[in-house]
Amino acid sequence: MTTNTRDHLGRSIIAVTGLGAVSALGRGIEENWDKLTSGTSGIHRIERFDTEGLRTTICGSVDFMLGKDASSVDLSYAMAEAAGTEAVSMAGFPDDDFGGPLFLAAPPVEMEWRFRLALDKEDGATRDEAGYERLLEIARKHPDRAIYNSTQCSRISELLADRLGTRGLPITLSTACASGASAIQLGVEAIRRGETARAVCIGTDGSISQESLIRFSLLSALSTANDDPARASKPFSKDRDGFVMAEGAGALVLESLENALARGAKVHGLVLGCGERADDFHRTRSKPDGSPIIGAIKAGIEDAGLTPDDIDYINAHGTSTPENDRMEATGLAAVFGDALASTPISSNKSMIGHTLTAAGAIEAVFSILALREGVLPPTINYDVPDPKIELDTVPNTARKAEIGTVLSNSFGFGGQNACLVFGRAN
Hints:
By secondary structure, the protein is an alpha/beta fold. It folds into 2 domains: 368 residues, Peroxisomal Thiolase, Chain A, domain 1; 37 residues, no CATH class. Helices cover 33% and strands 18% of the residues. Strands 1, 2, 5, 6, 7, 8, 9, 10, 11, 14 and 15 form an 11-stranded mixed sheet that branches. The protein has a two-stranded antiparallel ribbon with strand order 3-4. Helix 11 links the parallel strand 10 and strand 11. The longest helix has 19 residues. The protein is globular and about 65 Å long. The chain starts with 13 loop residues before the first strand and ends with a strand. Belongs to the thiolase-like superfamily. Beta-ketoacyl-ACP synthases family. InterPro entries: Beta-ketoacyl_synthase (IPR000794), Ketoacyl_synth_AS (IPR018201), Ketoacyl_synth_C (IPR014031), Ketoacyl_synth_N (IPR014030), PKS_Beta-ketoAc_synthase_dom (IPR020841), Thiolase-like (IPR016039). One of its GO terms (molecular function) is 3-oxoacyl-[acyl-carrier-protein] synthase activity. Keywords: Acyltransferase, Transferase.
């Protein structure tokens, strides 16, 4: 382990001392990594609710944590709590007295339709009176505060702060599919500024419901390959037809390397750089020239004090939608040039689906594990290569590789792009 604790700009080097994960593959780092590297899919048919009349009837939901009637807030908290306590314990801190700030990426919240209908029926209102603000007021005054609590964006972070014993006001952010990476960036920046010696950064999303499925379906974003769920997510393949909604949580404990070394902590990896760029072209589409994606990738690599030639592996955003995969490949080609053809790039989403708000955090966990274990997770279901996207996707089977750096991409709806660069601990 290097004893140099400052980076090329004189800032604290950021160490990752704790990891936690929950996904459709299972609970905990060990189960997730074993299944991920064996090419196991967590995509399955939806059993949580009735799918009659829906175009998409598959997902990567986490059904082993709570019952079918749990709210999205309850499930998001349960997964975040599981991942967070795993990460904090791994880092060697009490899981109820972490003592540093919490940065949480959580899904946007609103009253679920089943709760709206229940309150409306209970109140006996007419259709014309069933406004959202009125229902919120009914929920606020209701003896059972559970429904009202589920509408508060800070609810999950408040519960987590109490559970983990974090310090200061917990920060909740929601930047679409870049949220998990953005939460990590906030932790990195807080440590670099000297505001704290450590932080816990968590991304969670348990928001699969009939209405969320319908909304993404209306955007023509979801795969309709319902007949064979395990093969539905096909990043970078010619026959890809959309992403598969999924749930999960990822957590990282970040510390200044100086602090980690001083207390004798095991360092699993380093966060070397963070880059972000906004795209104002369209709510769901990328700017045709790819400049925001290109800018985010370049910014992350430059922040790490590296060049594209220094990147050994790319953990792709790789959603399996026709446009996103094409635009990500275009952006990477603009940055890496001819070197892209020999740089392995794979997508975890081929196995766990798209965990939306949690994606950047879960994929950061997998990036650190790839560095630590010397294994590249595969892109499964890569049987029909797209001749317009020539990449080494680590097709179908994991690959052993001694890598020193990873670029992890997160590109979200609304034009929110974030890229993280990770390094090996030794």
